[in-house]
Amino acid sequence: METETERKTTVADEVDGVLAELFLTPDGLRDPYPRYERIQELAAVHHTALGHWVVTGYDDVNAFLRSQHALKDPYRVFAPWVGKDDWQDHAALRRLPNIMLWANPPDHTRLRKLAGFAFTNRAVQAMRPQVTEMVERLADRLEREGSLDYMKDFAFPLPAMATGRMLGIPDADLSSLQGPMRAFQDIYELGLTPDDLAECDKGAQFTDDYFSGLVEERRKNPGDDLLSALIAAKDGEDKLSQGELIGMCNLLFGAGFETTTNLLGNGMLALLRHPDQMDRLRADLSLVPGAVEEMLRYDSPTQLGNRVTDGPVEIAGVEIPVGSSVVALVGAAHRDPRRYPDPTRFDVTRADAPVLSFSSGIHYCLGASLARMEAQIAFTTLLRRFPGLRFDGEDTVEFRPRLTLRGVESLPIAIG
């Protein structure tokens, strides 16, 4: 008969095997959800053979992300593929300490206060007419051409234009920023190779150079845009440094297009694969706001968050010790049957389904309300204007081979 110690060892070995499939195999990256389900069946909290901790349940992930002892530490998170002594050799890594995403209090509190004015509900709602006009213009193109690559011709341009308009980026520059910004954001994926890191560095250097030039231009010629306001923003004698301004531009533009682009793409794919839900939504467009929340839950554009503990944290009766590296699996939390009845079902009428796609606690995304508004306007418009919206080659749909930021590479659609 197997002893309790042997049983725990067997379970731990199986969880490690499932995690290896999740992060390191094409099938795991293409469809992580069966792996999440299996991990949740085996263990709520798991200490991996590589020394990381993994948390998967909704309440546990939410509690951990809100813990005052769960801190951002880029040096620790990225240590597996670059030592701290080599940090300055990599443009993608040099950026991280200057951006709010990787800051902790009091620096995080300071940066958020200086930037937060731009993302009040009033400020976001003031953008609604502009976002509506952008969506209608992109929909006009679909109507003219009859078919297009939704990712390339709709899901990227919309958030890029919206965030670019806020920051004061000329529309003509947006397409040149997409590739480099996407290359940099691969830095957030686990298990990068040296070649991967080199591509991240190239992307980071390009966007750093671009935003450095834009900051200098706005210093000389302030405009009616967010970047000019950030340059002028003060809290007493405090203001953003040059590095912090460049970091803020990279953060706001990168998050503004990548996360929202993936929300638009993953959400559209879910609707196309569930035509009954698309029909239900089209019949009652008042359901769109709730449907966007279901899209965020069902196939989240952000699948995980990394933290390091500076104090012991108890999760599901397990004490995670000081100095631990923890991966909070948001995608798994969104399929937790204890929080969501029938979690594998895509249901645009699902109620009371709060999501963690924009994190939780002090790192809750500043731009969450803007992303939601863009998606709500986009899906309302497309469903209203195109009753024959359909796949134009479902067999060509592929997810990018990434997990942290999950999104579709290409999604051909047609309107009749």
Major sheet characteristics: 5 strands, mixed
The CATH topology turns out to be: Cytochrome p450
CATH superfamily: Cytochrome P450
- The helical percent reads 40-55%
Q: For this structure, what is the CATH class?
A: Mainly Alpha
Number of strands: 12
Low-confidence stretches: none
Which structural category do the helix and sheet elements fall into? alpha+beta
Radius of gyration: 21 Å
How many discrete structural domains?
1
Beta-strand percentage range: 5-15%
Mean pLDDT: 91
What is the global morphology?
globular
| Widest beta sheet: strand line-up | 1-2-8-5-3
Number of alpha- plus pi-helical segments: 19
How far apart the termini lie comes to: 63 Å
CATH architecture call: Orthogonal Bundle
What order do the helices and strands come in, and which of them pair?
Blueprint: H1 4-24, H2 26-30, H3 33-42, E1 45-47, E2 53-55, H4 58-66, E3 70-71, H5 74-77, H6 91-95, H7 107-115, H8 121-125, H9 128-145, E4 147-149, H10 150-155, H11 157-167, H12 171-185, H13 194-220, H14 226-232, H15 242-273, H16 275-283, H17 288-298, E5 305-309, E6 313-315, E7 318-320, E8 325-328, H18 330-333, H19 368-385, E9 390-391, E10 398-399, E11 408-410, E12 412-414
Parallel strand pairs: 2-8
Antiparallel strand pairs: 1-2, 3-5, 4-12, 5-8, 6-7, 9-12, 10-11
Report on this structure.
- The chain is of the alpha+beta class.
- The chain is built from 19 helices and 12 strands.
- The protein has a single domain (4-414), classed as Orthogonal Bundle (Cytochrome p450).
- 54% of the residues lie in helices and 9% in strands.
- The strands form 4 sheets. The protein has a 5-stranded mixed beta sheet, with helices on one face. The chain has a 3-stranded antiparallel beta sheet with strand order 4-12-9. A two-stranded antiparallel ribbon has the order 6-7.
- Strand 6 (313-315) and strand 7 (318-320) form a beta hairpin.
- Helix 9 runs parallel beside helix 19 (368-385).
- Belongs to the cytochrome P450 family.
- This is Cytochrome P450.
